[in-house]
Amino acid sequence: MKTLACREAGFDCDYVVKGETEEEIMRSGEEHAVNVHGMKKEDCTPEFKEKLRGLIKDTWCKTLAWSEDKTRFKNNNLGQI
Q1: Residue 5 phi, psi (nearest 5)
Q2: Are the beta carbons of 49 and 36 closer than 8 angstroms?
Q3: pLDDT digits over 15-53, tens only?
């Protein structure tokens, strides 16, 4: 799971974009910026998008927990890994 916090992108907003890929995050983030913050599509320049890419966090490890025997991580959605 990847996330991008709107506040970290410079907006006074607590929305967090979530997705499995960087492309999904960028697409959802752009939709949010246009629909909620009134940005225009042309304001989403390559430079702005590059800044946002640098703010994307990979949060997979926060969803994992130790198994009972402490030898493996497990996640109810993924099984043991």
Answers
A1: -85, 125
A2: no
A3: 999 999 999 999 999 999 999 999 999 998 999 999 999
Global pTM exceeds 0.85:
no
Q: Which H helix or E strand runs over 4?
A: strand 2-5
Instruction: State how far the alpha carbon of 40 is from the alpha carbons of 22, 25, 33, 43, 81, in Å.
Output: 21, 18, 8, 5, 42
Q: Say how far apart CA 69 and CA 55 lie, in whole Å.
A: 35
d(CA 14, CA 54): 18
What type of residue sits at position 2? K
In residues, how long is the chain? 81
Q: In whole angstroms, what is the distance from residue 38 CA to residue 23 CA?
A: 21
